[in-house]
Amino acid sequence: MKFEVTILGSSSATPVFNRNPTAQLLNCNEKIYLIDCGEGTQHQLIRFGLKASKIDAAFISHLHGDHYFGLIGLLSTMHLNGRIKPFRIFGPAPLKEILEMQFKYSDTVLRYEIEFTATTADVPEVIFENGDMTVETIVLNHRIPTTGFKFTEKKRQRKLLSEKLEADQIPVEYYPLLKRGLNLELPGGKLIVNADYTRDSEEPKSYCYCSDTLADGSYLDSLRDCTMLYHEATFLDELLDRANMTHHTTALQAAQIAKTVGAGKLLIGHFSSRYKTLIPLLEEALTVFENTELAIEGNTYAI
Ligand SMILES: [Zn+2]
Ligand SMILES: [Zn+2]
């Protein structure tokens, strides 16, 4: 199953040095989800040859402009392009009011329905589920109510060992039962032990998205053993005081968190506009957590 994330924006606060405010596109078995939607997201989609019409839902972490100022434009474009498929939005409750007001005063009646689900920054909760994955909020510690999102694949059925099944002439009609892990008794009394004909499917992968937050212990349980952690790393650790004051994280802290929770890999982003080159942020994180990469716009990272 395809499970990958493409970075559309990696900047905090303002667009600068060819970096754009936060936005990511998650592909989970060809269902496409937008995570945050900073200003310029539409331009980034066009630049990287990605289609807005394919996006099924948007997950908005909080109401600082660098995480949602692109949303109204994107929704308007989908309307102008004739979208009729409903669009789901998950985000803080006031976002619904903000969008409705913008549409009201531009006298826009969308051709498609927006299905809005309000998130709360109180306790982690499952907000979305389909056959492929579950999405749970991560309660972050920022200056205004903020949630991250944890996307977890669902466990797949057992894999069939085709050669063995064929060699022993097991009838095809039993395959679905074997995939579900059942032992069988064939007509005539022959016993089929499931483990002889199937193997376990891969362990489900998970992607945790954390932006923006003070690096504290409050949300670490939500991140345990995730396959890939995206964590904001707005500053170098020499600006730790500023990070604490503004409720942001340093690259060093992001790496410490990845190590503490046992993440498989770490992707850092949400870089301050003061950094023209990002290499020092990467180097700082690498001192603590080896499997770290920079979130570079246009790059796609397999989870
Ligand atoms: Zn931000
Ligand atoms: Zn913020």
UniProtKB/TrEMBL annotation:
**Cofactor note text:** Binds 2 Zn(2+) ions.
InterPro entries per record: RibonucZ/Hydroxyglut_hydro, RNase_Z/BN
Query: Which co-factor is required?
Result: Zn(2+)
According to its UniProt entry, what is the function of this protein? Zinc phosphodiesterase, which displays some tRNA 3'-processing endonuclease activity. Probably involved in tRNA maturation, by removing a 3'-trailer from precursor tRNA.
Recorded hits in NCBIfam families, A to Z, give: PRK00055.1-3
PANTHER family per record: ZINC PHOSPHODIESTERASE ELAC PROTEIN 1 (PTHR46018:SF2)
Q: What is this protein called?
A: Ribonuclease Z
Native species: Pedobacter westerhofensis
